[in-house]
Design a protein that fits this description.
310 residues, four-stranded antiparallel β-sheet, 8 helices
Length: 310
């Protein structure tokens, strides 16, 4: 059993730690965590401890150590789950979770990167439509290319790499042809120069247009430090220096890298998801000499369980 309490009037970090430590000493309490900035005490207790008993314990401890503090249980709202398509970076997923958790409409957020699933606990009464709107705005400010949908309304789309493959092959051919012509014919004459630069430009647009658009969207939302912006700056720098093949190479190799990363992430997700599906729905725990079927989440450390064949 997990409960979160608001300690109103708590303005001393040391006192907050004393309250947390004292609550954690109770034999029925598994763990206690304090968020001093939010004045929140999170307590996880044994299932045998009723919510009223736990509330009494926390109130008594607070009254003993800090008489001016008022304790109330935080009102919790139903969690909402969202699927984030296009999220291929674990670090980006954590940044998304942190951004949502810091928002004023959420009390907490949990991210399952493998399932592309974000679980949000609202901090106030809010409609599903409005919450989806605010969550989407927060997430796209961090990752502009992703799409957000409610889990119950999400339709899984088959991943297709045809567009990416065509894009890389087209840009690659243009780049190689232009590079060979530049090294053999040269760019001293006007016609070959125009032809070579045109092929470089076409290859750059094919690979870099999407990166540039994503970068501009991120900058517009004050997210200046991301890989798309860095790639755009690097390629523009190469163009300014007259190193056109370098500019195209930057975008082409980045696109190829993103392509293989996407394949690897999706493959890992499928493998882990198929493994997760094999997890047991129930557990047989030995209680008072007989095995009782319970939910696996309710099995406590030290319990004796029965593992059956297959």
């Amino acid at each position: 059993m997990k409960r979160i309490y608001i300690l109103e009037g708590l303005d001393c970090a040391h006192c907050a730690e004393e309250i947390r430590a004292e609550v954690e000493k109770d034999e029925r309490v598994k763990s206690a965590g304090m968020n001093f900035m939010k004045q929140e005490l999170t307590v996880e207790a044994e299932n045998s401890c009723s919510p009223d008993e736990l509330m009494t314990t926390v109130t008594e401890v607070a009254a003993k150590l800090e008489p001016d503090v008022t304790v109330r249980e935080r009102q919790t709202f139903k969690e909402k789950k969202y699927i984030i398509d296009g999220l291929d970076c674990a670090q980006c997923a954590e940044e998304v979770r942190e951004a949502v958790e810091k928002s004023d409409y959420a009390n907490g957020a949990k991210m399952n990167f493998i399932k592309k699933e974000l679980t949000v606990t609202p901090s106030k009464i809010i409609s599903d439509k409005e919450l989806l709107k605010q969550v989407t705005a927060t997430i796209t400010a961090v990752e502009p290319d992703v799409t957000v949908s409610e889990k119950e309304n999400h339709v899984e789309k088959k991943v297709s790499y045809t567009k990416d493959i065509v894009k890389m092959i087209s840009a690659g051919i243009l780049f190689i042809v232009a590079f060979i012509l530049e090294k053999t014919i040269g760019t001293e004459q006007l016609v070959p120069k125009i032809a070579i630069l045109s092929m470089y430009l076409a290859a750059y647009v094919i690979c870099g247009l999407e990166v540039a658009i994503t970068s501009i969207k991120a900058i517009a939302k004050k997210n200046f430090f991301n890989e798309n912006t860095l790639m755009l700056i690097a390629s523009i720098g190469a163009i300014v220096l007259g190193e056109y093949e370098e500019a195209v190479a930057v975008m082409l190799f980045y696109t190829v890298g993103e392509f293989f990363q996407s394949i690897a992430v999706n493959k890992s997700r499928r493998s882990i998801s198929s493994l997760i599906k094999t997890k047991p729905e129930t557990a047989d725990v030995l209680i008072d000499g007989e095995y009782i079927t319970v939910d696996p989440e309710n099995v406590e450390t030290g319990s004796i369980i029965c593992v059956r064949p297959s």
